[in-house]
Structures are given as structure tokens and as C-alpha cells.
Fold this sequence. Notes:
The chain has 362 residues and is an alpha+beta fold. It has 11 helices and 17 strands. Residues 111-355 form the Transcription regulator TrmB C-terminal domain.
Amino acid sequence: xxxxxxxxxxxxxxxxxxxxxxxxxxxxxxxxxxxxxxxxxxxxxxxxxxxxxxxxxxxxxxxxxxxxxxxxxxxxxxxxxxxxxxxxxxxxxxxxxxxxxxxxxxxxxxxxxxxxxxxxxxxxxxxxxxxxxxxxxxxxxxxxxxxxxxxxxxxxxxxxxxxxxxxxxxxxxxxxxxxxxxxxxxxxxxxxxxxxxxxxxxxxxxxxxxxxxxxxxxxxxxxxxxxxxxxxxxxxxxxxxxxxxxxxxxxxxxxxxxxxxxxxxxxxxxxxxxxxxxxxxxxxxxxxxxxxxxxxxxxxxxxxxxxxxxxxxxxxxxxxxxxxxxxxxxxxxxxxxxxxxxxxxxxxxxxxxxxxxxxxxx
Length: 362
């Protein structure tokens, strides 16, 4: 290695140019007066004393008095160890930069782990206050009472609240003591414990298992894609398999849905029989993103799998792929899809069946 490259390496290790020159001179000479070092390196004599003392503090040299200030290179073992550690850190840094560069970005979503269940409840209260369309919630009676004011406020703002009440097998009596009119649109009862699960407006999720002392933590998700995964967990494990125990009946001439697949499950037999079903759809245009409200009648259903029952009924299994309502409005037909609709014209946020004559069963 030539002198210039060696000096550059020492400067990379943190030495100044004067310090690197002085140290290299002492390595060659072994020991020398400060004045001689200044002459050999073109370090100003007024600076050489400070340069040597700085090198001494860094462990590179030692100084002593012999008629004048003299210096000699220190045992390099400590210096070599420091340089090797620096080199290792630089290699590790380079490897880490390369690895992070190759990893996919995660800027568009946020996942937070919290240690206290109270933090999960606090986050839910905040999200419930901002909800525009739908809250899906699975909670125990005790948890529901803690967040009752937030649910009452959501119902007052016409937010659709789907509530799954979860208890232990011996706690059925707790359900009988609960009032749902002011806190939920629909309620189902699961007579088994379940994680506290909340989904708000297809974007936010609050989740906490709370089953064992070692599981006292929660997950807060601010991401539509991950919330979609929790959506299917809620539908399959916490909703459709359990009995409906309450449904808002303030208007007997309409039924509302926030999930197009649930709507399709209910109306499929009627569509098969040729029943004309008046409907109002609120949502947004898939291509432009503009808000849309249209009224018309359901004329067809498109699903990835055809019904296997004689009455034309469908299950969520049939609708795991495409699930489209075809609505005729003002002489045109529109495809109505659910969350993440791509094949349809409109992604629905609320579907309202406007007449009791369709006799949709709970």
C-alpha cells in the first residue's frame, strides 16, 4: 500500500491529515523530536505540539520530555483492534444497507404492538368517533360495557355496527341482561370466548387475544389490505356461523347491508325465483373514485361458483371469489361489488333493500 492510500485509510478511521502524517512519520522513525516531525511532514511548528498530544489521547503515540518534547509510536495493538472493529462495523453496515434496499417498502401501512389492553380500547374509542360507515366488533359483555358510549355515538351517526357477543359456555345469562338497541345494528351470539376484534371502515383493525396472562398485548393496524384479512376472519369465525339475536327493526320496510356477499346470500333465492327487488346502493365509482348513489332493482347475481341447492341459495364459500349484484337503474345495468371491487362498476358501502315484500329471512 502506498503512502497516500495509507494516509487516506487513517483519515477514514478518524484522524486529521496532520495527525495521519505525524503518525506515519513516527512509524518510520520510531521516535523523534516534535520539531523534526514538523519538518518532515510540513506540519506548522505552531500546530505540531497539539497534533502530537491529540494522537497521544487517541492512543496512537506517547510523548516525553528530553531537552524538548519528543514522541514515539505507541504499541499498535490497541490501534489495530480499533481499526479492525471499525472495519467490521463498516462491512456490517454495507450488508445491512444492501439488505434493506432489497426489502419491499412498508411506507403505506402501519402496524403497532401495544402491551396494555386499555391501549387497544382507547384506540377503538378514537376510531369509533371517526367511523363513517361500519364497525365490526367481537367482544365480551364486560368489554362491550366499557365501550358502550362510543358505540352509542356511532349508532347516532348512522354507522352500521355488527356486534358479536362472546362469552364462556357457562355465561349465557350475561346475554339476557344486555340491551342492544342503542349500540348495534345487528348482533350475533358466540357462546365461546374469542379475541377482542374490531374493524372500522375497512381500514383499521384493533385486535387482542386476552386469553392468557402471557398474551396481554394488542395489535393496531392502519392498512386496508391487512384489515381485509381480518375481515374474512370476522365473517367466517365470528359472524355467519353464529345465531342472530338482534337486528334493528326501526323501519320494517327496509333492510340494510354493508357487505355485498351477505346481501347476495339473502337475495339469491328470490332472484332465482324472478322476484323484483328494489334497491338503493351507496358507494363510489371504481374507476373515478366519485361518490355514487343509485336506485333501481336487482336483476342478476354473478358468482364464481353456481348454486348447488335447488332454491338457488348461496353461501359465503360460493362467494369467496367474484360476488356481484347486477342492478338496473334508469335503463342501464351496473355491476355492484364489495370491498376491493375491480370487475364491477361500483364498490358498495351500503346496500338498502327498500321493501318488506321481498320477505328476506333472517
